[in-house]
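We keep the chain:
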Amino acid sequence: MAQRLVNFPDGLAYLCDEHQLDPLRNYARVGSANAWPVHVRTIYGADDYSVDGNGRRIQIVHESDFLVTPVGEWYFVLAIFGVEFAINIGHPSSEGYVQWLEANRGLSPLYTEKNAGCGPMPRKAI
């Protein structure tokens, strides 16, 4: 979140003071909950690649985005070499993410209409 807000000082201040993030902060710092589930699945192979307009092979190293479900849950979704991790940033549950996946035919939020045409974040030529 901070990376997305680095050019917006007011946004960073909001992030630091946002009380809705306190449960996750407390879990990360002192283990305030027994477990904080992370949904993990493979969405493409680690060695998969696409081809850019110049015919170069492009490997997606990592990409990320935020998902807000219809019921208002916030998830941070991160893919590293095709392994997708999704964590609810408001409370320790991944049920809402599983429900969202079921309602969206298993499509990763990284490849929804919101992100159409944006391409992956960082790319590395192989």
In short: Residues 120-126 have pLDDT under 50 and may be disordered. The beta strands are 38-42, 50-51, 57-60, 62-68, 74-80, 83-88, 123-125. The first strand starts at residue 38 and ends at 42. The radius of gyration is 16 Å.
